[in-house]
């Protein structure tokens, strides 16, 4: 009886030793060679690469948790969300608001010194290439827009701009509030500092092209001064990741009170 128990113990010992050896070998085998952390910035899409929504809806953004991580099958973290930025964009065709969404990610990658390329989950990391990620709170497809061996450090600058809109409805001026702000989820990127207006009248033609007094409509010419947060990229001022800040251009600015997308930039200070 004692010999049987001893034999079972010896068998269990060698079985445990074998499993430990296999586990260690598996970890060594699946650990990427020349593995290192790489930082990428991506623009998010809702859905898979073959059917993507360019500007995901608010319910989708609300389910993305910053600092969430993706793990491999051994339970090791291979991806982490560092920064989540989103900017509202109005779609006049569907009368809905989506969000241009950007993520800064920390990825455990393998580096090939011969090709000087990084790979994540056996897929090469390239600017413009798609990347699929699956976190505990959400999964998504995104487009890589920047790759760096160090954490991103945007060159932020504050600028004062003058925006104007002609032929506005009289109620629009009251809807605009001094102190109205727009945030990217991380920080304030737009704030109304001042507002003013000039009463105007617009004369519309009738169905025959005639200008008649009955078609005279009261309108307003609205001017606002606002503060915006932009990045300086190659000596160019960029608002909301992609939009150049220059005169005679409209910017996708939407707050909880008003949609400023129809305003035109008249001055940048």
Share of helix, binned: 10-25%
**Percentage of β-strand residues:** over 45%
Question: How large, in whole angstroms, is the Cα Rg?
Answer: 28 Å
Q: Sketch the topology as an H/E string, one letter per element.
A: HEHEEEEEEEEHEEEEEE
Number of helices: 3
Given the C-alpha coordinates, what overall shape results? elongated
Walk me through what this model shows:
- This protein is mostly beta strands and 269 residues long.
- The protein folds into two domains: 35-148, no CATH class; 156-268, no CATH class.
- 15% of the residues lie in helices and 50% in strands.
- The protein has helices at residues 2-30, 58-62, 170-175, and strands spanning 35-45, 69-71, 77-91, 96-112, 117-120, 123-124, 130-134, 139-148, 156-168, 181-183, 188-205, 211-233, 236-239, 243-244, 264-268.
- Strands 1, 2, 3, 4, 5, 6, 7 and 8 form an eight-stranded antiparallel sheet that branches.
- A hairpin with a 4-residue loop joins β4 (96-112) and β5.
- The N and C termini lie far apart (92 Å).
